[in-house]
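Subject: design request, 306 residues
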């Protein structure tokens, strides 16, 4: 009875929401759910990308991706760059490199992006003095106007308790852990890692591109990377069969990542099965959608290969 009520609830949400089909410049089809409601986070758009010849009588894998407005159409983004996930996904499936999947692009909210994506439990490990320094830097960068407090636990509850059930009721997807993944870049890489650590029975793996281990914008006497490392070191031994993909370049903001990624790699080498994680280095690549587009085949293949 409870399950039936849940289905009715999400069907009603679907029917009451403002939706639109976004197809220009895109392979396949994008259905936009405008102002997706949530009791945990600020309302935001959600784009659902469906491959060409999408069939309602099969079960697709799902990738939940952050910064949804940057994923598909470069003509619609602020910097005229996009991941062009639709094109890479189409090619990988057409060539039988990956199993069939759909993409759920979750838009960010600019003023709350840092709070939504900053892993909350590692933040708690910091001293009050460290938190004060982080708060000051975020204010100086114009990212916040008041005391910084990560809201990533609520952001993940939005995905797991509200968005994911909605997708499973309204689209032809598998609910199995092994068919559900989460991916992002920079801060989106951090929250993807955190999602699998916190919900290992929900997500089968994480794609973390140019993971923003420094948390802010400076790397001098920065305690944040070690807080993330300590958190991962404690969490990894409790996981089972969850995949992790990491990568980094060496230009612009990515130039700050190599030593921190090497620390994380050491923890994985010590605590985790080699076949379940991968780190790739892309010399000459920077911190941009253009760079992530060029290497998107790597995480998609690692996570979704047959």
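Subject: RE: design request

Done. Sequence follows.
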């Amino acid at each position: 009875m409870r399950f039936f009520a849940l289905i009715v609830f999400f069907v009603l949400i679907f029917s009451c929401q403002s939706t639109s089909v976004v197809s220009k410049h895109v392979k396949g089809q994008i259905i936009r759910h405008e102002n997706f409601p949530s009791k945990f986070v600020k309302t935001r758009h959600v784009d659902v990308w469906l491959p060409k010849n999408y069939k309602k009588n099969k079960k697709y894998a799902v990738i939940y991706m952050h910064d949804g407005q940057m994923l598909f159409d470069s003509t619609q983004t602020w910097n005229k760059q996009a991941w062009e996930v639709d094109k890479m996904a189409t090619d990988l499936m057409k060539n039988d490199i990956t199993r069939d999947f759909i993409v759920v692009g979750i838009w960010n909210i600019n003023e709350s992006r840092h709070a939504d994506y900053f892993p909350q439990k590692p933040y708690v490990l910091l001293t009050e003095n460290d938190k004060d320094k982080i708060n000051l830097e975020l204010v100086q960068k114009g990212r916040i106007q008041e005391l910084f407090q990560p809201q990533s636990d609520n952001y993940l509850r939005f995905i797991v308790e509200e968005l994911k059930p909605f997708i499973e009721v309204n689209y032809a997807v598998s609910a199995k852990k092994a068919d559900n993944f989460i991916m992002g870049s920079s801060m989106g890489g951090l929250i993807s890692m955190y999602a699998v650590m916190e919900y290992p029975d929900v997500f089968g793996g994480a794609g973390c591109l140019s993971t923003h281990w420094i948390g802010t914008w400076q790397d001098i006497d920065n305690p944040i990377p070690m807080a993330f490392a300590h958190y991962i070191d404690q969490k990894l031994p409790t996981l089972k069969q969850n995949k992790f993909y990491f990568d980094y370049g060496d230009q612009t903001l990515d130039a700050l990542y190599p030593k921190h990624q090497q620390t994380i790699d050491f923890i994985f080498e010590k605590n985790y099965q080699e076949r379940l994680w991968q780190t790739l280095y892309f010399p000459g690549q920077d911190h941009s959608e253009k760079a992530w587009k060029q290497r998107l085949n790597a995480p998609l293949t690692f996570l979704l290969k047959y």
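Residues 17-304 form a domain with the Rossmann fold fold (CATH 3.40.50.1820).
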